[in-house]
From TrEMBL:
It comes from Pseudomonas deceptionensis. One of its GO terms (cellular component) is cytosol. Keywords: Cytoplasm. Signal peptide: none annotated. SMART domains: CheW. It is found in: Cytoplasm. Pfam families: CheW (PF01584). Residues 79-225 form the CheW-like domain. GO terms for biological process: chemotaxis; signal transduction. This is Chemotaxis protein CheW.
Length: 228
């Protein structure tokens, strides 16, 4: 690739995007002459175009990884560190090596001409546009299943390190990051209806809960497909 890596090209692409919404727009000094017309930057064609270029970068990164991926893969060793969270009434665990951070819930701005059903739009994370995906849609869960309610429970956003960059996954509750014995993770299995669960490595009992362990490789691949 003429001495340039995919990451350096993506970085150059990111620098080429003029994030005017952070300078003169709704997140800046509000001096943009178009702000009175559009009310909010998300209604402006410049903002939408920047979001589209963001998704194009994910597509480019995925194509590069498929082109230069090694033919053999080493056996991954199960980790003990999981972020445990809830969607509806279901508790799930994901290895923390996929996790950049857990953040407070932010406004999600929809995009015209969505590329997939799972893509909900983009969220502004510290001034950067980050794609937002529905885990309920990706995992094929019932969106109508109610979860437990409490004044102390606050929805959160998992910011996950996908193949092309970070993505936002809103969840109903985050219990925290916990260390679980590796032998328990290895012993987790699927049976009955659980065997058809999407992107699932196994199910184990944890704190009197049935905890569904997500397969990080399958999930990250599904995320990438939803963005390309």
């Amino acid at each position: 690739m003429s001495g340039l890596t995919a990451q350096s090209l993506i970085h150059s692409e990111a620098q080429a995007i003029d994030d005017c919404w952070n300078r003169i727009g709704i997140y800046g000094d509000k001096s943009c002459s178009l702000l009175a017309q559009h009310i909010h930057c998300r209604n402006c064609a410049v903002y939408s175009a920047a979001a589209t270029r963001l998704l194009d970068r994910y597509s480019f990164e995925q194509e590069h990884q498929e082109l230069y991926a090694p033919q053999t893969h080493e056996q991954k060793v199960a980790t003990r560190s999981l972020v445990i969270f809830r969607l509806g009434d279901e508790w799930l665990g994901l290895v923390t090596r996929c996790l950049d951070e857990v953040a407070p819930i932010q406004t999600i701005h929809s995009l015209p001409h969505q590329r997939s059903r799972a893509l909900r739009g983009v969220a502004n994370v510290r001034g950067a546009l980050v794609p937002c995906l529905s885990l309920v849609e990706l995992l094929g869960l019932d969106p109508g299943v109610p979860g437990a309610t409490s004044l102390r429970i606050m929805p959160r956003m998992l910011i996950v390190a996908a193949h092309g960059g970070p993505v936002v996954l809103p969840v109903d509750e985050v219990d925290g990051v916990h260390n679980i014995e590796e032998r328990e993770l290895m012993a987790a299995s699927l049976s009955g209806e659980q065997a058809s669960a999407k992107y699932t490595r196994g199910v184990l009992q944890w704190k009197a809960r049935s905890l569904r362990l997500l397969d990080e490789d399958q999930l990250l691949s599904a995320i990438t497909r939803s963005l390309t």
